[in-house]
């Protein structure tokens, strides 16, 4: 902006010169011109660039034209569709479920469309009533501590803050969650209730999928009843036609120039060669591995301390954040698929969406080779879902293989039992299925369409940026296990990381794509606030960063509060990770107390939960009398639940409260961020 500080008025005037020189006039004209241009340009931009996707305004031709790219209603009307399935997805499962529902709509004469709420003007929901027999379905995952997924955040906030009239909207909601977490399916439940509050009609009751059990079974059971409700609500009948129409069509790209072919990039072509800040889920940073060392002292298990070099990346992290690591599948498994299907893995291809209105043109970056797709883009190690069994039936030449696939794809009790035992219990992935059903030979391009996307893996950062601003540390256990079929399954990310050993010579250092995911797992704002940290095994990771940060503050001369750590592992001489570091922090006073539980160093197993019960007075002194903070990191299924029960018990006994009062006290601690958990199942 221009202002009067650009003009300096002299107090003395020389009589031989005019009062205003030619230069003064020129400067004045320039200032006026720039100010005029800035004012009107700003006004124009502010009126056109205001983001109003979630405000309800009267419809007009001009407004529809302006929002045509984000107007799902316009797409529905122009293509004769009545079903739209929105998804809130962080790992791809909700998006996959949405696609399956939209595809099945054809069996009920409801042409469907899958939509990402982040790319849509969700205010258009008020216009759904203009489409005859229309239906909006929401497949919504709950993420983190009861948060919406990134792509559903704007929609969630619109529902919270808006008061749109959704009378005439017919809807159904399916939630994806995990019962081991406190906020089980919280977002889906809220959306289901809020839509009803705004006047929408619930066509079918909400479905709640539990990823800790069998979310596929939950979804299939809900979906079957959904269509029954749809038929009843609209007075329609199932056509009985099975829809095996491909969502993507194969495009031969053998003539495409090499520089136009993706080779593992997540979104932008050649993004690893030409890195651009900022780095995020679609644009990860290719980090060098600076350190990769073993933490276990002995035994047949492995735990790695890995440091990612972020010097020069402009990436910043906070203590308690997570780092996402993009893995790749082993060449052994990829080659096996090519061998089983007798396919040329180096052929260049593309999959193009047959729905021209879809914003998602490809299932993964295209064009690329089959080898690239199977290595970087597709999940070939997880258990395939039932819809893949169904799609494989047509490729089975042996009647026995056909019948087995038909059974597992069915929703009968026998079919569910067979799928659970043969796929889930025996832990078969797509490679194992092709090996054990040798007559099944799917077209490789169709298999690439069916398989889910390979997802990044998240790790708690085990360093403090105050101490290590140019590197990110993680602590990761190598995952290898034998399945009931005597196959060895290997963790995709950890087995890749185990191979990335930096060298001391001039050779290029190994690299891997990463980005930082923000977390709510934070130290108290005041360094003098006392804290208790409970982190057995690799649950120690974020607390290593916490301790580093408090130690840094102490060395700066700042007062730091009590720091009590509960750590546990199997054996002191085997898997006591970071032992020397922790003992040093105890010696210098940063770590007030270190409670250790070695479960297998004595006849009776001893865990951190036992130590918590023994130290009830200390626990209450910090969280009750001194209003300190408590942190838990590790297994959500058992350890975190046990810790929660012990905390409630201690609050009851030491705080002289009833069970109800103790539960409310702990709940309030969580709301005040005095009780935080960073757990996984």
TrEMBL record:
Broad enzyme group: oxidoreductase
Domain FAD-binding FR-type, chain residue ranges per copy: 282-524
UniProt: FAD binding residues: 457-460, 475-477, 481, 491-494, 680
Pfam families hit by this protein: FAD_binding_1 (PF00667), Flavodoxin_1 (PF00258), NAD_binding_1 (PF00175)
CDD domains: CYPOR
Entry's cofactor comment: Binds 1 FMN per monomer.
Described purpose of this protein according to its UniProt entry: This enzyme is required for electron transfer from NADP to cytochrome P450 in microsomes. It can also provide electron transfer to heme oxygenase and cytochrome B5.
Domain Flavodoxin-like: 83-227
Molecular function as annotated in GO: flavin adenine dinucleotide binding; FMN binding; NADP binding; NADPH-hemoprotein reductase activity
Residues spanning the membrane: 20-39
Membrane topology label: Single-pass membrane protein
Listed GO CC annotations: cytosol; endoplasmic reticulum membrane
Cofactor: FMN; FAD
Chain sites annotated for binding FMN: 89-94, 141-144, 176-185, 211
Record keyword Transmembrane helix present: yes
Cellular compartments annotated: Endoplasmic reticulum membrane
Catalytic activity line of the entry: 2 oxidized [cytochrome P450] + NADPH = 2 reduced [cytochrome P450] + NADP(+) + H(+)
E.C. numbers: 1.6.2.4
Binding site for NADP(+): 301, 538, 599-600, 605-609, 642
Keyword NADP carried by entry: yes
Any GO BP annotation: response to hormone
Protein name as catalogued: NADPH--cytochrome P450 reductase
